[in-house]
Design goal:
Blueprint (H helix, E strand, L loop, with lengths): L2 H27 L4 H24 L10 H22 L4 H7 L3 H11 L7 H18 L7 H24 L4 H15 L1 H6 L6 H24 L5 H4 L5 H14 L5 H36 L2
Length: 297
């Protein structure tokens, strides 16, 4: 299996698991401020991953000082994206919110071409266009835009910057260090807002909070590891798989029955994912053939 394909599979698994975490957050957002929910997610995830990081890496649980800048950037972007997303899903359906924030991969692909100097092939461009078209079909944009949709679009903007910053941060840093720093620094940044919006959780809330934190660790670990195997422009379209998960979890937990437009949009998004997988597999085969030819006498 090629590195590109490994990255795609890991990213797909990470993205499909995110809607489960979002479902817990949506339930909690009915009783707590989205800012407080964001703080709880990072605090719980930090409490789960930090002891594990100590057991595996000893004192080296966060990136080296000379590599902290991109990690700080990615954490700031994902905190902003997560908080605005929790505001969005407190008022609109999961599938609609996920569809709206999928301007993120478009932004990431454009930025990666200019900042990271990554190659932008026509197949990647087509896959992005097809995936984004599917997201628009699901969102069903009309003349009147709800505030929740605006927050979801803001999430997408910040998520695009997060994808590029993650690629910059993941090159020489072990995934566990990246994940530990993100949760510790994220919890630290949200301490003051978390205190300002504090409400006492019940025992039922505590179970949801733990599930949200654990799921967050798993999904981010998968995504961070994916960037060690594939570039940002290749992985960006794969995040559209999250919409499929959002449709499923929205139906199971909240009775949100997908409309015809949701199914059409989801089909376009899945097609975009398979297109980029085919492109990556084809590139890997071509590279291997080139190496074999060079080795021939």
């Amino acid at each position: 299996m090629s590195d590109q394909l490994k990255g795609i599979i890991l990213m797909a698994l990470g993205c499909l698991s995110i809607p489960a975490v979002d479902s817990f957050a949506k339930v909690l957002s009915a009783d707590f401020s989205p800012v407080f929910v964001s703080f709880l997610r990072y605090l719980t995830a930090a409490a789960i991953v930090t002891p594990f990081a100590f057991a595996v890496s000893g004192k080296k649980i966060i990136p080296a000082k000379n590599r902290l800048i991109p990690h700080i950037m990615r954490t700031v972007f994902i905190i902003g994206a997560m908080t605005s997303y929790y505001v969005a899903i407190s008022t609109i359906e999961l599938a609609t919110a996920v569809a709206c924030f999928f301007i993120g991969p478009i932004i990431a692909t454009i930025l990666s071409a200019f900042i990271l100097k990554e190659r932008l092939t026509w197949i990647k461009i087509v896959s992005l266009v097809v995936g984004f078209a599917g997201a628009l079909v699901v969102a069903r944009p009309s003349g009147a835009v709800e505030p929740g949709i605006l927050f979801a679009l803001l999430t997408g903007l910040l998520f695009g910057f997060y994808l590029v910053a993650t690629r910059m941060a993941s090159g020489e840093t072990p995934p566990l260090q990246s994940l530990t720093f993100q949760n510790l620094f994220g919890a630290a940044l949200l301490v003051v807002p978390g205190i300002l919006f504090f409400s006492m959780p019940s025992s039922d809330h505590l179970l949801l909070i733990f599930a949200m934190g654990l799921g967050s660790c798993i999904s981010h670990a998968l995504s961070i590891t994916a960037f060690r195997y594939a570039d940002a422009s290749t992985l960006s379209p794969i995040v559209y798989a999250e919409l499929v998960g959002a449709v499923l979890f929205g139906y199971v937990f909240f009775g949100e029955v997908p409309s015809t437009s949701v199914w059409i949009g989801a089909a376009l998004i899945v097609s975009a994912g398979f297109l980029v997988m085919f492109s990556s597999s084809k590139s890997a085969v071509s590279k291997n053939l080139t190496v074999l030819k060079q080795d021939q006498p």
